[in-house]
């Protein structure tokens, strides 16, 4: 299968591209720079210049492919609404290009926040709050199942990680600790964050591309929920720093998300797809240290 991958050189895309190529798929990867193009080419993919705001490049990529995996998203937390709007327009463009084709379209969504219980694949997307727009975009993707597209959403937890490289939301905690000398958590720190190693997540995107039925929701969750305080303590232990509670405002707009309890399960995904995470947990990766300078 020839697969068009947006965000092909990004934190998740750089794991998904080799995962696809290793089993014989061809990859056409959307890239924004020469550096990104070289990274995709080095993984034996074919780079296509453009980004989520270049709708012509999205149409061109979808037209050349047998399937699409949409991973690109602006992680500029100072312009979150703009990033959400860009993602929505990109998905609308890809949807129009794929309608009636029967091709697979796999989109990276977010595990929902369900007050009072651990979220599952059967729960609706979160469509309100600071990232509610991303949930509405995921709903748009799932609705394509009624328009001749084999659409699916792989919901990602807030911490997609791999030691020495990236830690998802924990990257914000690490950067703040490196800057302030304090490893901080919000409130009483009992709020839980699910997590997945990015190599395990890459395997689930491939499974969705190859086998997911139209309208399928999958959860790329390995750890259902470590408390924010536990994560801060792991970071503080490695960096030899005090661990303290801070108000949500300390982390800016994303602090409102940090204050929420958001555990999530992948039990149905494992049962239905056979996916099993095998790589190190978030706590294991944090305890290993070797953090890059993120501040």
Automatic annotation (TrEMBL):
Pfam families: Epimerase (PF01370). Residues 111-135, 269-295 are annotated as: Disordered. GO terms for molecular function: aldehyde dehydrogenase (NAD+) activity. It comes from Streptomyces acidicola. Residues 3-212 form the NAD-dependent epimerase/dehydratase domain. PANTHER family: PROTEIN YEEZ, PUTATIVE-RELATED. SUPFAM superfamilies: NAD(P)-binding Rossmann-fold domains. This is SDR family oxidoreductase. One of its GO terms (cellular component) is cytoplasm.
